[in-house]
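Translate sequence into structure tokens.
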Amino acid sequence: MLLKTPTLFINFKTYKEATGQNALKLAKICQDVSIELDVCIAVVAQSVDIRLITNNLKIPVFAQHIDPIVYGHYTGHILPESVKEAGAVGTILNHAENKKSFEFIKKASLRAKEAGLLLMLCAASVNEAKKLVRLNPDFIAIELPELIGGNVSISEAEPRLITNTISTIKKINKRVKVIAGAGIKTRDDVRKALELGSDGVFVSSGIVKVKNHKEAIYELASAFKSFK
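Result follows.
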């Protein structure tokens, strides 16, 4: 379950094609391609599917969210320690589909670290990334919300957003890695994002919603071969 960069992060969201047994099947394909190409692939799964995946596979798994809580009276919340114990190596926070206040993110980030989880914070702009990087995450994912799920990639539409985010973040904390997301669907999209300096890409529907999962994953993962 060693996670190394550059990394292909695949967000399962709550798609039927990536829920329950389907999540396990898709993660198995990700693992097979990862081994075949010797490329790091991490899956971002629903909390209820984490243990199913980690009990059967050896692929890095991130939770889609955690809450800034501790053991106790928090019915319905996601406890960071539960995610860790289920086998997750990390979590994302502040995805465009689950935006939170800075105070929430600050508290949840601290809890993630206390639980021993890697942390990816999602940002929609350079200014937001600049603010979030001060929380000392492991990754910042830069994603334009309007491109998520679309047919135009961030590396094609807004390459300067990637480079500006990288330069801004590195001035504050060189340790933090930048992941590019939104609209990435082809090998060329990935290649350009990596050429611009990103440490990986964050994808979803371009993988999960296609008919041939292995073909789609192989297409994107193959672009990483020249950047190892």
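Note: DSSP finds ten helices and eight strands in the chain.
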